[in-house]
Amino acid sequence: MIKEIAGGVCAAKGFTAAGVHCGVKEGSDPAKKDLALILSETECQAAAVYTTNRVKAAPIYVTMEHLEDGVCRGIIANSGNANACAPESHENALEMCTMAATATGLKAQDFVVASTGVIGQTIRLAPIQAGLPGLVKELAHSPEASDAAANAIMTTDTRKKEIAVAVEIGGKTVTIGAVAKGSGMIHPNMGTMLCFITTDCAITHEMLQDALHEVVPRTFNRVTVDGDTSTNDMCVVLANGLADNEQIEWKDDDYAAFTQALRYVCEQLARAIAADGEGASRLITCVVHHARSEDSAERLSKAVVGSALVKAAMFGADANWGRVLCAIGYSKAPFRPEYVDMKFVSAAGEVAVCEKGTGLAFDEELAKKVLTQEEVIIDVCLNEGDHEATCWGCDLTYDYVKINGDYRT
Amino acid sequence: MIKEIAGGVCAAKGFTAAGVHCGVKEGSDPAKKDLALILSETECQAAAVYTTNRVKAAPIYVTMEHLEDGVCRGIIANSGNANACAPESHENALEMCTMAATATGLKAQDFVVASTGVIGQTIRLAPIQAGLPGLVKELAHSPEASDAAANAIMTTDTRKKEIAVAVEIGGKTVTIGAVAKGSGMIHPNMGTMLCFITTDCAITHEMLQDALHEVVPRTFNRVTVDGDTSTNDMCVVLANGLADNEQIEWKDDDYAAFTQALRYVCEQLARAIAADGEGASRLITCVVHHARSEDSAERLSKAVVGSALVKAAMFGADANWGRVLCAIGYSKAPFRPEYVDMKFVSAAGEVAVCEKGTGLAFDEELAKKVLTQEEVIIDVCLNEGDHEATCWGCDLTYDYVKINGDYRT
Q1: ∠ CA A271-A272-A278 to the nearest 5 degrees?
Q2: pTM of the model
């Protein structure tokens, strides 16, 4: 039984967080927090996945180094600058860890570092140094503290992404909490955003890494906003063991229960990231089922939520199912067009649009009603096997163009 | 010496064309032509490339059948309906050829058939049958006739795509002319649009097919508008031999001269299609040079012109070069980020933005001037080898969203 609870990244035992405005970006709004700290009172097992982009931001490399030993104590993160491809990027990412260590009395190697924002401009460290004492003072084990951290990592996100769940593992209550940011440059192929997960579960580094690798491909990697995989993507999970459950060392029932809860957390955040894609007005969920394999179902589903033409049609609440068929057609995954059934489903009902690859007559008025809901499900039945996959995306709107036509300046 | 001349698809000896409005789409504007015919007075060698989409429209299959013998006499094409994935699509595509044959006194197998428009709705043949006698009466060997055919295949195109060139081959003047349509669902992986090419060159079917296969991957397949590969894409070349040059049977100098002229024709149309992408306000050309191989240069260049974030930045005339670096990073092609130099070039000058993978300080005012021109070149030097490739795309604008949010209705 997975139960949603309050508290976000501070819900698990022994974790504190904080978020403040320090002015990473010159002249930025003082009301916008831009520096976050998440800390565990004891050492954590840590696992992470990173962007697959060949161009990786400096904080990615520094975090990789710092997690080589599989343990850490906290996360320092900023919005307002990606600290990527700028002079001194690497030195500056290291320096951020050193600053966080000095302010907390820990070591630089104890920190994961993450940055998000514009690429290619040198990050200003002075505001971060000046902001750190205040940030440390704000550290608290409270829902408000998690909220502050969640807000501090947002860029063009319009809503904070935060969740926590409690689950029984080996007779003990284990808690998993997380904050994430998404919005632009969101695409499969990895973490596709920043996500910081904390848990008090007692689990080995190896099992934690395996659980994360099982979950991320089925959650965050199934989200696409615009097909662009960022240079800074990172998903990190810290486990401090304070739940006092028997340590998970094998792929037993406890491991399964933990992984299921972790998947729930990641799936809810993945959906939230898709729904809040830059400029998005609705969440588009594409379920491809009765496929020959999960892999082909996933590729077909991704092609649909990634299609600019499908996304624009969804913005216009236009039941243009031919574009969905066209998108699965160029996905390179195998299927038989002449077997495909398709319908659009939402809170307002459902409308079947295609049977055995051929268009059906349908009620345009009903279709309009179905397609103007907050979440629209594109349901594609391949009639070929019994595998399925679900991917998430959003519609393509005027606001996406507006946000990205003038982001840097 | 390749010389541009007037006449489009009617420039070559022995070719006539026509375009009329017949009302394929119910209630469509009578001023918008929607039915085109291109005819050769003698039998032609014919070569074609087709969409790689697994979902292929009926006219693609019918054309494949009709060109199995390598020869044909003409092309019948309509806009207003894709004749794809609708009941009776295949029968209707065949019937269009039969109708064209009846109206011209030829055989159905003599015809290439092509359709463009919305997917999944049954095409109305009655208007086509009613329109054919008038269409045949309009057939003429004139620039105006080519213009009419070029207009009849347009959908959301805002400008017709038409070109003709003359080139000396074996002491004779050989002419190549073409009309094309592009605009939406434009992406590498094949023909990516409709393109009808006519030539009076004497050339074997085999050499014609080889020339087309050499040229298309370096021209049309290097265009992307929105990453969607249509179900109906087709590029056909008809050669009737009336130029009286010695027939090209080998890969000799004559073959090279013909292929070079064909490439010129296709490259100009490819650029025109990119520049007139749905909603586009400018042509984006990405040149990747000093690469390890042409293949990797092409993949890197395609990733840049295909990136939604780069496209939106170009719309906003924002010199956000980090997005270009990010796009080549996720392209999966090999390169060293730390070797990359980058500049933006246009009629207004050039501005260097990145050297050895690191941002340069640059004049924002000059950058704005450079980026607000009709064509912007993104120049990426990999400093690794001596291969290069050029791809073409366009910016992502409010109008793209507008056009595609409400296309079907």
Answers
A1: 110
A2: 0.78
